[in-house]
Design goal:
The chain is of the alpha/beta class and 247 residues long. The protein is built from eight helices and 14 strands. Strands 6-5-4-11-12-14-13 form a seven-stranded mixed β-sheet, with helices on both faces. A four-stranded mixed β-sheet has the order 7-10-8-9.
Length: 247
């Protein structure tokens, strides 16, 4: 099949930037033209799946609970994870980059996905406002590599101010969370600290982008500090995601 369908600015109800609609076995995705150089978009353009083993693993482990998965980027995980949800379960996600957020929202619309809560925020240890770098020194959009940066270290035209919230504040206490999956460009430990209630009370299976041994240990130590007695241990890595499960 043709995996790329052209769409441009001005289309009724469409995002206000150039983009393409790409497809793979799970569904359709809004891919901004500015993100064409990203690995994920290249895979989708070829009809492939980004981190297929991770998606299969989460889908098999979710049970009847909710998934927290973010940052959303363009919502490339949404169709597959939505397919695995039990009745009444939800996906909770977040994406502070405005273009990525709008693309993820369009991915939700393209696939007619319900039970997804997507918020235009970053997650961290406390509620605050921080600077996010969204473009490189050459002005090129850095898309999925957008990251929180120290104030004054990035040119104003290459950054935006974003709202940071805690996961504990945006996930209702009555929700049962089975999976906590975080890929937040180095902000994982801060995000964990803002999810102390969820981790201690819900004991979800946790997947974190942590490819370096020192970071895997730092995440394990953080989980022990946040929820002593839960017995969280590093259990292996799937693709770029370190897995931690409670005792």
């Amino acid at each position: 099949m043709n995996n790329e369908i052209s769409a441009r600015d001005g289309t009724t109800g469409a995002p206000d930037f150039g983009y393409s609609v790409l497809a793979n076995e799970y569904g359709f995705y809004c891919a901004p033209d500015d993100y064409g150089h990203r690995e994920i978009v290249g895979l989708l353009r070829a009809g492939k799946v980004y981190e297929p083993d991770t998606l299969r693993f989460i889908s098999r482990q979710i049970g009847t609970g909710d998934i927290i998965s973010g940052g959303a980027f363009i919502g490339d995980f949404f169709p597959a994870l939505h397919e695995a949800l039990a009745d009444g379960a939800e996906i909770h996600s977040f994406e502070p980059n405005p273009m990525s957020f709008r693309a993820a929202a369009e991915t939700i619309r393209l696939n007619d996905l319900g039970n997804i809560r997507l918020l235009p925020v970053a997650v961290g240890e406390r509620a605050e406002k921080l600077t996010m770098q969204v473009a490189g020194a050459d002005g090129r959009k850095i898309a999925a590599a957008a990251r929180i940066a120290p104030a004054g270290k990035v040119k104003k035209e290459h950054s935006i101010e974003v709202d940071v919230v805690t996961l504990d504040s945006i996930i209702a206490p009555e929700r049962h969370v089975s999976i906590l999956h975080l890929d937040v460009e180095g902000f994982e430990i801060a995000a964990l600290r803002g999810a102390q209630r969820i981790i201690a009370e819900q004991r979800p299976l946790i997947l974190l982008e942590a490819t370096k041994p020192w970071k895997r240990k730092a995440c394990a130590d953080t989980l022990e500090d946040l929820a002593p007695g839960t017995g969280y241990r590093y259990s292996g890595t799937i693709e770029r995601n370190a897995i931690y499960r409670p005792a």
